[in-house]
UniProtKB/TrEMBL annotation:
Protein name per UniProt: 7-cyano-7-deazaguanine synthase
Family, similarity comment: Belongs to the QueC family.
EC number: 6.3.4.20
Lineage: Bacteria, Pseudomonadati, Pseudomonadota, Betaproteobacteria, Burkholderiales
Gene3D superfamilies: HUPs
Binding note for cofactor: Binds 1 zinc ion per subunit.
Reactions catalysed: 7-carboxy-7-carbaguanine + NH4(+) + 2 ATP = 7-cyano-7-carbaguanine + 2 AMP + 2 diphosphate + 2 H(+)
Cofactor(s) the record lists: Zn(2+)
Gene: queC
Organism (species): Ramlibacter aquaticus
Amino acid sequence: MHDAALVLFSGGQDSTTCLAWALDRYARVETIGFDYGQRHAVELTCRTQVLARLRQEFPQWKDRLGMDHLLDLSLLGQISDTALTQDKAIEMSAAGLPTTFVPGRNLLFFNFAATVAYRRGLTVLVGGMCETDYSGYPDCRDNTLKALQVAISLGLAAPVVIETPLMWLDKAATWQLSHALGGTPLVDLIRSDTHTCYLGERGELHDWGHGCGACPACELRQRGYRAFAAGQAARSEVAP
């Protein structure tokens, strides 16, 4: 029944892994991104580079990867007072959440994605939300997205499935999933071309990718990659 998917694609590690996951499973896959007035728009550049490389370097997915959609949600940045939309320090707020939390962001993303998906005949929405290695954002939690799936399906009078393949994976397992899907070439693409850093740093290419190495997003990515790499090395040592 569900053979066509729309992937929420930011140009980061998680959404790129989810895009590969969707391409491995669905006959037709489209992507959607959002320009929401984010403080560092470098990810918008990265996403086009990643899409181009996927088309060029992964022939098994080329014919499945369809149209990309980029929506202007700059109003969200105008009404948000967060470290991802304003020049503010990354710290814990009085509400117990990091100042990188953009209230309502994923709720809006999925609702707009569902609108595009409805028009395009796509019945699966795929997002890289995770409740294992994450910053505590309430709109990344499994119960939030299950409730949203019900609300969207009812509101459209059409069945919509929200898939979150990373929900219960830590970052090491996310790297492992990318390797299982596309081997070393996909891992290398994610390392070099995707963007995660909250501070927008694209200077030195570390073993785990570009980034400042100090913000919460970089710390998760770095720790996960090194655990993944250590596991790969251990497996190669015991291989016959």
